[in-house]
Design brief:
This protein is of the alpha/beta class and 269 residues long. It is built from seven helices and ten strands.
């Protein structure tokens, strides 16, 4: 079996990682997966691993992170590879497998290109992206974060569940970030700083605390990575841990600056 148990401070609903593809063309300077792969003396060019399609899924209700060692939807991935991975998810759906497959990419425009296939497995996938900042990203060849926000929001409006990684978090425009989070309305948010290198600009701690507070107010579950664990004891109506509360008639998003009310749905992994 090539399915692996998730490790570290990953959002707790993520039970496994599954890598039928590896590699990426975004060339993010902080990327630990690329650094690790090259340390092993291997190429980080996109590759397809067809034997992974034979894996038996755990059917344990957990999320399965697809492509933790690459980006399934980066420009270097062949369409046929993507279709085969989505086909495997569709097959698992017909079997009644109750896992959710987390599809995380810095190129969510590709979600639209595969909209028909994704729509057929809508109840089995969670679509995610990474937003390090609301500004420029000179450390990466990935599409701008404004585009990632735009296209993931479109998928949310089309009825898909979403996920947001704010890692590595660089300094950001606070009001714009809150507006983006409200529009994406993710099932969960992962937050962490850059490790092992210094390509991004660490935000002031007070700004990070205010971001976390607003996630609490919005009742959006989140996980803090190890380099932010000192903030874990923040007071507030935390909903960390994988489930969000049911909707209130007066949702707290409406009280945030630059935000608009939106419904809050219970997470069912």
């Amino acid at each position: 079996m090539t399915l692996n148990k998730a490790k570290g401070r990953m959002f707790k609903s993520v039970g496994h990682t599954w890598n039928p593809i590896v590699g990426c063309t975004h060339a993010c300077k902080y990327c630990w997966a690329e650094s690790l792969t090259k340390r092993w003396g291997k190429s980080f060019e996109p590759q397809f691993r067809p034997h992974f399609l034979d894996d038996k899924m755990p059917n344990d209700g957990s999320w399965i992170f697809v492509g933790s060692m690459g980006d399934l939807f980066c420009s270097g991935m062949k369409d046929e590879w993507i279709l085969k991975v989505l086909g495997k998810i569709a097959y698992e759906r017909t079997k009644g497998t109750n896992n959710k497959f987390l599809l995380q990419t810095k190129n969510p425009l590709s979600f639209l290109a595969f909209g028909l296939e994704l729509d057929q497995i809508k109840d089995s996938v969670i679509l995610g992206t990474t937003i390090e900042t609301t500004g420029e990203t000179p450390w990466s060849k990935a599409p701008p974060t404004s585009e990632r926000y735009k296209y993931l929001t479109q998928m949310k409006m089309a009825g898909f569940k979403t996920f947001l990684s704010l890692e590595p978090l660089s300094d950001f425009d606070f009001n714009k970030m809150i507006r983006w989070v409200v529009a994406i309305n993710p099932e969960a948010v992962e937050i962490g700083l850059e490790n092992y290198s210094n390509h991004t600009t660490k935000p002031p701690e007070d700004k990070i605390k205010q971001l976390i507070y607003n996630l609490d107010v919005l009742e959006i579950p989140y996980v803090l990575k190890d380099n932010l664990k000192s903030l874990q004891s923040l007071d507030g109506p935390a909903t960390r841990g994988g489930e969000r509360n049911g909707a209130d008639e007066d949702h707290p998003a409406g009280r945030l600056q630059g935000a608009s009310p939106h419904s809050s749905k219970e997470v069912k992994p």
